[in-house]
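Q: What does the assembled structure look like for these inputs?
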Amino acid sequence: AQKITQTQPGMFVQEKEAVTLDCTYDTSDPSYGLFWYKQPSSGEMIFLIYQGSYDQQNATEGRYSLNFQKARKSANLVISASQLGDSAMYFCAMREGRFGNNDMRFGAGTRLTVKP
Amino acid sequence: EPEVTQTPSHQVTQMGQEVILRCVPISNHLYFYWYRQILGQKVEFLVSFYNNEISEKSEIFDDQFSVERPDGSNFTLKIRSTKLEDSAMYFCASSAETMGNQPQHFGDGTRLSIL
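A:
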């Protein structure tokens, strides 16, 4: 069974600084995808970034990058140059398999607060 | 940018009543999903749907839940006889495919409150 662990229930960061949100996962499937979503206080789920298990390079998307350490089964999200609008819940999620496995399992989330 | 839309944004229902939550997925997407998020907790997978049938469901998705794609655009979640513990935010999502880097795009959710 797959399992996603986010050990930081809450994190604080100063505006304009970088922050790392931790995510570890557990799977026996060699093929999987890792996703990060942002959930602002308004409640919607916003897709941020994806990392595939066979990707050789760490994913980057604007100010978001993923520190993917496959051997350690970790996929930490790095947000550079934090902005006040980055304050939100952040969820790590994993989808196993390449074909037909549809469900995505989420971690418990990390609440990020950016301080001015 | 195309988006998943969900209606209503907030539904209040008496315990034991039936409720239908509605979703319009992104038009060229083929895979549809329902998730729920109990207040303050993580997002939990309920069910996925492809080619007019359920492809996967979780242990949460018991006999009181059903999904339907009644026409070419809507995707609905029905809860037959609601319980207090069904109170949660329900998210609909859709994706173009299930492989690779195709994310699931989420709607803004329906907050279901059972009284």
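The two ends of chain B are 37 Å apart (CA to CA).
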